[in-house]
Amino acid sequence: MKPAKPTLPFDPFAIAQATGEVALGLAMRPTHLLEVQIAAARQWGDFWTSALTGKPGDKPRDRRFAAQEWQDDAYYRAIRDAYLLASKQLHELVAVGDGSGHSQATARFLLDQFLNAVSPSNFAATNPEVVERIKETNGGNLVRGFANLLEDVSSGKGE
Length: 159
Hints:
mainly alpha; 2 domains; 7 helices
């Protein structure tokens, strides 16, 4: 009996088709794309003006940024606001792209997965709560976390 072929949890051809349709839609609408780019340049100018003057922005409703340091500390606030601005702009870019309703939905889903993965709250150096915990434990939390990772990998849980 032949061993079963491994299956993927996603369809790479559907992903390629959806992202291709959206990208082609952007290429076919250069005027709209230029408008998005001009708006993005303005928004980044406003972002840097606010960041460099220390002007606090509105606290976002995103629960990943609930810790007070995201609002009070200029370093963390700039990281948060840059991430949120880039996320907003990428969503607007995908919305300008053409494609079937299914392709648009797939592209938005993929974008959301990517943006969630690269959120600054997911990285120790850019998450104020993790930085505080590192200070409290003299790095013990990182050592324990790495030990847990090694245990998961060695037991097959971290495939």
